[in-house]
Amino acid sequence: MPRTETDFDVVVAGGGAGGVGAAIGAARAGARVALVEKYGFFGGAATNAQVLAYCGFFHHGGDTAVRAVEGAGEAVLAQMRKQGVDCQAYHSPTTGNWIVLLDPERLKLALDRVLAEHGVEVLLHSRVAAASRTADAIESVTVAGMDGRFRLIAESFVDASGDANLALVAGQPMRIGDGEGRLQAFTMPIRIGGLTVEGRVDRQRLIAAVDTFNERSPYKITRSDGGIYTRVAGSTDFWWLIIDREMPDLSSKSFTAAERSGREMANLMVEVLQEKVPGFETAWLAQTGPQIGVRETRHPAARYSITHDDVLNGRLREDGVARASWPIELHSEAGKPIYEHIGGEGYYHIPLDALHAAGLSNLWYAGRVIGADPRAYGSTRVMGTAFASGEAAGVAAALTARQGKPPAPQAVRKQLVAQGALI
């Protein structure tokens, strides 16, 4: 397609970590980029589901934090540091993982600024509603926005929607959950204000409060360890991941039930804390959501699916274009996460074909939708890794637009290294 007929070189669907990484990666590779996001802000689960930690920027465990993600992800961290968020590695006492704690409001602003710096055309309150394709390529997408529907023509596309929305409307085959219909549990992180206690909260008292909650509520909390909690960066608020619930299917009915039951649970949980845990007497529920945290939905067909063995063996490969270092974290049974750790050097490579749509030459995947088998997916899905897979997908999309065909892995690697990414 002649360039004079295109609106953009690359269109990215979804503005979470994968989509932001893809937009930055494509822009740094010289592409004209449009980023389509259904919310009024970027950040994915970090801002739309209150998952206030970036997981996957560092290797698991150890006494010292070892970086696994730089490049586009580091550009976002640098923007947050300018706003006073230190973005230092935090060693979780619950899991032993190294994470980056987030302030969601300053993260929203940081993402706005970093995308503007890279000249990305931003389309908020908009979503990809349809795709026009030939036998082996997408030609355009129809976007539904506040001013109606309009068409974006591009040479290359990236699906970073998390739910594979672009791949779905393009007609790609899908695996739902683990392939047998089972989905990982959803979560409802809660943010609590008004604490009078300083320093550490007594975990045993939280565990006892959960027991009281379960006596009163028809919806049970199945975590028995007191959950994962910390103070919100830049505030005195208490962030708690304690509510996990089964997600039976992807129907609107099930999502509606999940949202409503999650809010009921959060409100009752705070009432119990007020009664049972010293320091919470004047606490209030500062925030749920804006939506439940969705860990898994659809998996579109890719040219390669990262395997369980790839992760366990820490497989490094010549066609690798991103590092992944988060352990396999599965939530197949609500409230009872299972961890498996990465072998080898403590990370494995995401190959280019895991980012490339099967049967479509100009569709690339980023974040939760990259190719991975049901167990490997427990490692690939986290936000730090999504920045890395997104930046690689964005570079691949930009090179596809430039040369009219998919690039070789070596060309993508070369560009990524020039952009400061770790491979």
From TrEMBL:
InterPro entries: FAD/NAD-bd_sf, HdrA-like. Keywords: 4Fe-4S, Iron, Iron-sulfur, Metal-binding, Oxidoreductase. It comes from the Bacteria. Gene3D superfamilies: FAD/NAD(P)-binding domain. One of its GO terms (molecular function) is 4 iron, 4 sulfur cluster binding. Transmembrane segments: none annotated. Pfam families: FAD_oxidored. This is FAD-dependent oxidoreductase. It comes from Pseudooceanicola lipolyticus.
